[in-house]
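Morning - heme-A inputs below, output right after.
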Amino acid sequence: MRERVVLDLSKLPLHGLGSASVTWWGTLGFMLIEGTGFALVIAVYLYLMSLAPIWPLNAPPPALLPGTLLTVILLISVIPNVLISRWARQQDLRKVQIGMVVMSVFGIVPLIVRAFEFPALNVKWDTNAYGSIVWTLLGLHTTHILTDLVDTLVLAALMFSRHADNPRRFGDVEDNAMYWNFVVATWLPIYGCIYWLARL
Amino acid sequence: MIRRVARLLALLAAISLAGCENWQSALQAHGASAISLKHLIIFIVAVCSIVWALVMVAMIYALARRRAAWRAPTELIPERERRMGRIVTACVGLTVVIISIFTLASFFTTRALSVAGSDDLTIRISGMQWWWGVQYLRPNPKQAFDTANEIHIPAGRNVHLVLEGDDVIHSFWVPSLAGKQDLIPGRINEITIRAERPGIYRGQCAEFCGLQHAHMSFFVIADEPQDFERWAAAQRAPATQASDEEIAAGRDAFMSKPCAACHSIRGTKATGTSGPDLTHVGSRKTIGAGLFETTRGSLAAWIADPQTLKPGNNMPLVPLAPEELRAISAYLASLK
Amino acid sequence: MTETIARAETLDTELDGTRLATALAQTWKTERGLWGALTTVDHKIIGRRYIVTAFVFLVLGGVLALLMRLQLAQPEARVLGPDRFNQVFTMHGANMMFLFAVPVMEAMGVYLVPLMVGTRNIAFPRLNAFSYWIFLAGGLLLWIAFALDMGPDVGWFAYVPLSGPQYAPGKRADIWAQMITFTELAALAVAVEIVVTVFKQRAPGMSLDRIPLFVWSMLVTSFVVIMAMPAIMVASTSLILDRLVGTHFFNPAEGGDVLLWQHLFWFFGHPEVYIIFLPAVGMVSTLIATFARRPIFGYLALVMALIATGILAFGLWVHHMFVTGLPRLGESFFTASSMAIAIPAGIQIFCWIATLWDGRPVFKTPLLFVIGFIVTFVIGGLTGVMVASVPFDTQVHDTYFVVAHFHYVLIGGAVFPLLGAVYYWFPKFTGRMMSERRGKWAFWLIFIGFHLTFFPMHILGLEGMPRRIYTYQPDLPWHGLNLFVSASALILAAGFLIFFIDAIISARSGNPAGDNPWDAPTLEWATSSPPPAYNFAHIPVVGSAYPLWDQPGSLNVASGLHSDRREIVITTITIAEPQARESSPQNSIWPLLTAITTTIMLIWSIFSPWAVVWGSIPVAITLIGWFWPSGTPEDEA
Ligand code: HEA
Ligand code: HEA
Ligand code: CUA
Ligand SMILES: [Cu+2]
């Protein structure tokens, strides 16, 4: 086959940023998968609720304090998260380093509160189907906080290493921030289900 | 030895039952629902066959027709493209019409089935691994009674069935009378059947339910109304008394062995519920959920080794001395 | 700064043809030997591996089918006892669906999509390697368990309570559930890769209306995977939880519900069948254009039909539950929506026939399989429309009628196009042609054997034969047809045997193919057969949906990429305008190590919930190894 050069790409940047980066789209893809998963588990909750004569089944509704506290913390964490995303776009290493440390803390604190949330559900997973579904909802969300925390810690370490000053790293920081927003956003409907639907 | 006898008996039983072809077929419809379902099936299949034939004709013509001179792949003729577009659109329109007709026909058939008139008899059917519990419910509880694996109904009358799954999901299906309906643990389903004429209709569990799903059949026997009443009266009665010594010995053996813990025989101490009610087992056409025709021999074979005849079923092999086995089978065969 | 200057010399504009080829081959190469095999991230090597493995599972599943047919040929036969038979049909169904049909379609996508969109590797190549290893682990898990008499025995949809803690003691049902986790993980990974490859890595100029139809079908399929697979993950996880830690999702005594399982399963299970079917129609559209020697008629309508099928697929699941006693009105809705699928299906059939009508068909083996597909799939689709009718379905649900329906659509609708596609793309995969003579034999044996095997099953179903029975009594009128079916299955198997023999012989000594033996119009044929490690020396620039038919013998390309860095072009989603020269990851052992740690965690978690805690630590470590930058040019921007 004869090749005819009709286009010169040598002026293009060597790395795509934002929506021009494949990792950005990959993160979005995995968010879509996990979002569907969350939606389905919530659907299971509603389905079981619609079948039950009373809800919650043989258990007092969960205590509000730990869950609400966690919600507040997650919502506050969005502020530094948005900032770090902006700093990463500006490729400001110093600020990003500080931001990563802050976000690591914001990853650990909710886990501590979460430890108090499980007992506050007032039901065990093997008591009845209601217990099973609230534990699953909470457990599923906890794994998301946990995985994002590990991701954040590794990235934080990277940002203090020789690999730090690189547009690719800053892209990773942005993607990680986007994922954290997702973790916070998915919590809100779960919070509504676990704590408020059970009080209707 | 016992196994060989059992196998031989099974074969004999099978041969004696042969000849009743097509007693479990959606195409041999003898019940009100099955008949209207058969009409619907024939209608839809006929229309679909025509659709298929037309598509085939079009395809064969498209492949075989003669063509004009060579043309480069990308050289399309706009006029012809437009004409093909119109034909394709028309075919799609026709598809829409046909599926709309199918949808309406389905809807009206279903509706006709669910308003099939008043029910004068209610029977509770419970599906268990791998047999059917049958309970005749009567307004007067004294008239209620239990049996298993065999359902007698009066011909020409609507019979209301309440379906309950006791362990896993089963499905109640007598193709010659009606479509199937599942028996689901934790839920109650209902179905109305009606046999237009007396006869024996075979049914079979249609939802996979474990090891012996293949041997979970049953019979619906439609009788003339007066025969049905006679049958029901006989079934209501407690078990017949022992008429000779061997039978009495059999009864005693049955009561002293674990049998009574699982089976009920009304009028005796046997009140177990984990196996089929045996009060009138001798009067039933088959044992083992359609496995063999009921004879003294097949009863003996079954009791001697249920696990070979129906591997995995929930009746254990109860060790019995040869004379006990003989006596118990005589006793059970006498329970008409 | 010095680096950029040094780099300039490695731009492809600075190198002549052969030097460029050598440089690219060096950059994109896979090491020789075992190490290379374990570390490669080349989508072609992984795709080929994936395809071969899936076909091995087809043979294994087919042998199980023959065993079932042997048992069912006679009433009261004793080839397989009930326990073994239940394992065999469950293995057959689960293996065919999860280890053959879905993976083989994904695998064709892994091999072909990057070539067809004109890029050098799939997006996330390491994830791709990981996906294959995980798929392999899932398959081995299932088959080793079967060999140890621990094969699942609850049917491919594992209805509770039969698969629950009370009625399925032992680990068989857990094996089924965890095999699902493996294969879904693999499929989800490939789905994301394909979506991103199609969105961002298309050749410059390949706007949405110039995407090859096979690529469109893989794109839609990938979205269906992304939306449907989480449902089965939720289902199988809750089943494992019920069985392992005593939750009560499916236990009616404690507020759970038996039908919840069916809703979750079929919310996935119905889209699943289109996950198998949509790539197949993509293949059909591709093959028809090539062998009818004209562009496909109704490109836009076909794309819309793909998308409509993908969307409608999520509104049909209840048609598998018509006899569970759901409210009548709801069921009527699902009848209507199921029948509505006939519209996009019809559009495709009509457009294909129109294409054939106006084209000038070349009757090579691939086209034969396509014709066999139309004949067979229309029957299967029409029986689908029949069972979509609630009252009709109450008579045939869970009978051999349904078994006939789904083999018609699975084999006729998906396997026929797949075999045609193998004949078609084999020269691309191997550089050699398959044999026309053996191909025709294989086709006719498979086509005739198929209809003789499966058509009588419709009648068996109407005559009252339920599915999943290990035997039947001689007094039932089914033995004649069953014997006939079993004998015909041998013809079918003989056809498959010839196909496999042909593939093996041709791979070694088939006629050399040349770059584009069929004079096909899409980009995968614009490079050599088999393609070099870097796919294209220069990235093609596309001006139509049929670039190779536009100016025969010449190809528009782009220049300006580096040859010392694995470089690909990122383009915009809609009009495919170049945005960046991005790097594509290096070979790596980490995906394999991650797959191993993941496998350990998943299998261990069948036995203890703590596996999730302790097992995730090695998984995290291997993941960090995977993503830790290595300082190669690929890391630098
Ligand atoms: C590749 C896989 C595939 C495909 C493509 C289909 C396609 C369809 N299927 Fe099928 N199906 C399965 C695989 C598939 N199915 C499997 C595996 C099962 C069983 C699972 C199990 O229980 O184990 C199943 C079961 C199944 C059921 C449940 C049956 C039961 O369990 O009782 C139903 C019910 O509605 C159904 C319907 C349909 C419909 C309406 C289509 C439609 O998409 C068909 C549309 C196509 C056409 C209609 C033909 C072409 C159109 C024309 C030529 C136009 C003219 C047409 C008309 C005028 C009508 N399928
Ligand atoms: C894509 C999917 C797929 C494919 C290709 C097949 C292929 C075949 N299937 Fe299967 N089938 C299913 C999907 C599939 N099936 C599913 C989902 C079920 C439901 C399971 C359940 O109920 O849970 C099912 C169930 C099912 C049943 C019903 C079981 C039951 O309900 O009890 C039967 C019965 O005949 C059957 C038969 C066959 C046969 C004869 C083939 C043949 O086409 C196979 C032909 C292929 C080969 C034979 C292999 C290649 C041959 C060689 C390489 C030759 C060398 C070997 C020898 C000569 C030994 N299948
Ligand atoms: Cu009971 Cu099948
Ligand atoms: Cu379906």
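Note: The longest strand of chain A covers residues 2-8.

O.
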